[in-house]
Write a structure and sequence with these properties.
Layout: E1 11-13, E2 16-18, E3 22-24, E4 27-28, H1 40-51, E5 56-62, H2 81-96, E6 101-105, E7 122-123, E8 147-148, H3 151-170, E9 175-182, H4 185-190, H5 205-208, H6 210-223, E10 228-237, H7 248-261, E11 266-270, H8 286-294, E12 297-301, H9 307-315, E13 320-323, H10 325-329, H11 333-339, E14 365-366
Length: 367
């Protein structure tokens, strides 16, 4: 196998210098304490990817407040001072291995399946989500019909993301990623059939992306001079995998131009296959459209498990690539890519960079 040269080259992301262009994708794990505190098991899990050579680690989705943002029982939080203290063991462990780590901040919206703070769910509109809750994450049966958010509640959530970003800085993170993908609250605002609002946050695509851009702006104003600030975007949803934006590339243009205007340090695109056209059988990939209209660093995610595919994504214009399932099976994926070793496809065949890497507690779940 030819050594992927661009993949293994350094990259400047905001104020960070990454030793390569391989990123650990955020993956749901539900392995925190019930109160949302990160654990020593989580520290060892993320440390193992830094030890395995990943240039950047992005955490699982983490809830920002003690209201309606929590998605699952066992999801970590960044909602209070205790959460900050608990996360420090994780950031310190990753930094000790020479890695960089970004916290993904996520509000579950209508897809919440467990919340220790509040009963019920919230969303842009009172639209019951498609599909059923996942037993793997503690859910059962149909989703609840959410309560429609009032304008003052929307403003409070925006401010809550900014405060959560400040707590992430206090916990030692190198950056934060705003989760606007996968059908969670920010994506619910972005999606036409889950957002039936008639105010400035609903209707046109320009209005529906407003919630996302206002959160990015608030987060950057709070920590952007010191931390990397990114955003994750997808078309597919956790509960509706085949979703595509209704107006195709025109929606992509509006969404990415609006996001790009807020000058995030990166846009993280996730698709089933990052190398396939975003709409139909031909045309640009979603990552290419993000690069074209967003005018910032782009991270591509989706079926880039082999180094040659990851290199292709970079040659096509993405700046970084992120790995989910392949990373779970290969915590030392970068080491293997550097040395021309085969990439294992099974979690039962891990070449461990650390002695305890095969512990089940170190696994995550691709999101």
């Amino acid at each position: 196998m030819t050594t992927p040269k661009k993949l293994l080259s350094t990259y400047n992301l905001g104020n960070l210098t990454l030793k390569n262009r391989v990123v650990l994708a955020p993956m749901t794990r539900i392995s925190a304490e019930k109160n949302g505190n990160a654990t020593d098991r989580m520290a060892r899990y993320y440390e193992s990817f830094a030890a395995g050579g990943f240039g950047l680690v992005i955490t699982e989705g983490t809830y920002p407040d003690e209201e309606y943002s929590q998605a699952y029982i066992g999801e970590p939080g960044i909602a209070n001072a205790e959460h900050v203290r608990a996360w420090k063991q994780v950031t310190e462990a990753v930094h000790a291995k020479g890695g960089k780590i970004i916290l993904q901040i996520a509000h579950a919206g209508a897809l919440s399946m467990g919340n220790v703070y509040k009963k019920g769910t919230v969303a842009p509109s009172a639209v019951k989500p498609l599909g059923e809750q996942s037993p793997a994450f503690g859910g059962e049966g149909e989703y609840l019909t959410p309560k429609e958010l009032r304008l003052e509640e929307i403003k409070a959530i925006i401010a809550g993301f900014a405060e959560a970003a400040l707590r992430a800085e206090q916990a030692g993170f190198d950056g934060v990623e705003v989760h606007a993908a996968s059908g969670y609250l920010l994506d619910e605002f972005l999606t036409d059939f889950t957002n039936l609002r008639q105010d400035e946050y609903g209707g046109s695509t320009e209005n529906r992306v407003r919630f996302v851009t206002e959160i990015i702006k608030a987060v950057k104003e709070k920590v952007g001079q010191r931390l990397v600030v990114g955003v994750r975007i997808s078309q597919a949803k956790a509960n509706y995998f085949v979703h595509k934006w209704a107006n195709g590339e025109e929606d992509a243009r509006i969404i990415f131009e609006a996001i790009g205007a807020e000058r995030p340090d990166y846009i993280h695109i996730t698709e089933y296959n990052a190398l396939l056209p975003a709409f139909g059988d031909s045309g640009s990939t979603l990552a290419e459209l993000a690069k074209k209209y967003g005018n910032t660093t782009v991270i591509a995610n989706g079926q880039l498990d082999q180094p040659e595919d990851a290199e292709r994504a970079l040659e096509a214009g993405s700046d970084l690539i992120s790995l989910g399932k392949a990373a779970l099976a290969n915590h030392d994926w970068v080491f293997k890519a550097e040395n021309g070793l085969p990439i294992e496809s099974s979690l039962d065949n891990i070449l461990a960079p650390t002695p305890n890497l095969k512990d089940q507690e170190l696994y995550g779940h691709a999101e």
